[in-house]
Amino acid sequence: KGNSSGRRIGIGDIGRAGASLVVAAALAAGIAQAQERARVLPETRVTASRLGEGVTGASTTVITAEDIERSPAQTLQDLLSTQPGIQVQNLYGGVNGTNATVDLRGCGAAATPNTLVLVNGRRLNDVDLAGVDFGAIPRASIERIEITRGNSGAVLYGDGAVGGVINIVTRNGFNEKPGCRAEGALGSFRQAEASASTSQRVGDGAFSLHAGSIDSDGYRVNNELRQRSVVGEVRRSIAEGELYLNVSADTQHLGLPGARRVTTTSSQVASDRRGSSTPFDFGDKQGANLAFGGTRMIGERLELGVDAGVRHKAQQSKFFSSFGNSYADTALTTFSITPRANVAHDLFGLAGRAIAGIDFYRSLYGSDRKVNETDRPSHRYDLDQRMLALYAQDTLSIRPDTDLSIGLRVQNVAVTATDAFDASAPSSGSNLQGRPLDASETQHAFHLGLEHRVSPATTLFGRAGRSFRVPNVDERVGSAPFGTPVDFALKPQTSMDAELGLRRRWGGFGLQVSCFAMELRDEIHYDPTTFVNTNLDPTRRVGVEGAANWSVTNALRLRGSLAYTDARFREGKWRGNEVPLVSRVTGSAGVSWDIVGM
């Protein structure tokens, strides 16, 4: 069993502390309302994100709806790859960017669990390794994308925010013009895309609906994609607040072509560019999500909010190889509730804004491992993960031109895991029953940020912080060497990072430059030589990122970005070696021109 060091903090301790925090926030709001002195508050705004306009001291980028419309990028991953510090890996032929990995700040092969993706401020990352499928999010449904680099979002959102946070804010009936829209596209390899959306307001309410479809045979043999997605939302204004209900669903079939087919010639690329060594492997997915919640203003300074939801995902995959067939049938359901309070206040004579809340997530995972679909499972893995966290972050105007942000998060993760082994069932994997796990681990994250406005056009910013990542269920299942039983045990990963930067605007020209250093311990990694997940020796990332944009005229805009990232092992047998799959230099440039004025 895993234990945290020192006094063990349990879910009950955090729950009692959380109740005290909410009460304290309400009392603080009352005191704040009684103080009538005018103060300059930090320039933050609570939106569909706990980030507001961004985390003080962090490198932040907002991709607006106008930017999305102007971009020639065909997928969200293509759009994100134009931003400094973001690298994209695609292992499935690039069909609509399906299952592509978005990497912030050089996490390499482990980018998926180290980049936290949100939709309207709610976690989209599941507790498995499947990652977020950006292709299942209809592009027409997006209002803007908020990118916060480094671990500055760890206090507000928890584990996994190591490389950064990507928050996708969707359109709704209140923030878009009423109307309907339909689009279609045809391409090579029998690619066909279609999307439709509508948005309407009715009295105090509004609704929006977005649907998308894509079919493609793909360039490779067994590279087909069949995908459907739909997102619907209803909102209603109430006295001093708002209520919402969001429902989404998606289905996907994806062929997995693997390596190119082995040929008798010396050049497989020249002889069989489209070939596949796995012409029958596939992965299927069916997902459904329900989220609801609302906000309410109490007086002029306190906003209370709560979000709740349930997310279900079923996956089936089949692999054929010379070592034997394997079939996995997996279901993952996550329940969540996240109450929070936002308050404007005066603290020791300093104006500020604070956010505090509780996050509770429970994930239930079940996976049958078989040789063929009709066989009895040789292994049935069941995991129950419960996460409860208490967090608070305050931003103070310590001077009219300077903001200071301080935040702390304490998070407890309790995991139970079992393996039901059937020795009489056909098996292509381990013939040993895994050892059960019953463990509890408490981790913390902190953030300290500072921004100083040298002039209305120039801002200096800097921060330091700590974050963490707990092992996901797929990593736990694969954490035993061949010939030994799975024990589901891995250490949590931790990171410390710091950053300094500059924002500057000269008329229509804007520039942001930052440099960073990040040190990771117990980084979780899949070792292809032993076929197990393990904790790596300490690693380090250092780099510089820059982005510029220039509105030459109202119709002509230029943009560019450049980033340098050096990711290396700093201890152990690989000391000095580079972390795989991390490009040292990345960059992009673009231009948009409104040829005809509207």
Give a summary of the structure in a few sentences.
This protein has helices at 11-34, 65-70, 76-80, 111-114, 154-157, 268-271, 473-477; strands at residues 60-64, 86-89, 101-104, 115-119, 122-123, 142-149, 164-170, 179-187, 191-202, 205-216, 225-238, 241-255, 282-298, 302-319, 326-347, 350-370, 379-399, 402-421, 437-455, 458-469, 493-506, 509-521, 524-527, 532-535, 539-551, 556-569, 585-593. The protein has 598 residues and is mainly beta.
What does this structure look like?
With 598 residues, the protein is mainly β. 9% of the residues lie in helices and 53% in strands. It has 7 helices and 27 strands. The protein has an 18-stranded antiparallel β-sheet. Strands 1-6-7-4-5 form a 5-stranded mixed β-sheet. The longest helix has 24 residues. The chain is globular, with a radius of gyration of 25 Å. The termini are far apart. The N terminus is likely disordered.
Pick out the low-confidence regions. Answer: 1-41, 43-47
Give the integer mean of the pLDDT values: 84
Largest sheet: 18 strands, antiparallel
Shape: globular
Bin the helical content. Answer: under 10%
N-to-C span:
65 Å
Q: Can you count the beta strands?
A: 27
Can you lay out the helices and strands and say which pair or pack?
Blueprint: H1 11-34, E1 60-64, H2 65-70, H3 76-80, E2 86-89, E3 101-104, H4 111-114, E4 115-119, E5 122-123, E6 142-149, H5 154-157, E7 164-170, E8 179-187, E9 191-202, E10 205-216, E11 225-238, E12 241-255, H6 268-271, E13 282-298, E14 302-319, E15 326-347, E16 350-370, E17 379-399, E18 402-421, E19 437-455, E20 458-469, H7 473-477, E21 493-506, E22 509-521, E23 524-527, E24 532-535, E25 539-551, E26 556-569, E27 585-593
Parallel strand pairs: 4-7
Antiparallel strand pairs: 1-6, 2-3, 4-5, 6-7, 8-9, 9-10, 10-11, 11-12, 12-13, 13-14, 14-15, 15-16, 16-17, 17-18, 18-19, 19-20, 20-21, 21-22, 22-25, 23-24, 25-26, 26-27
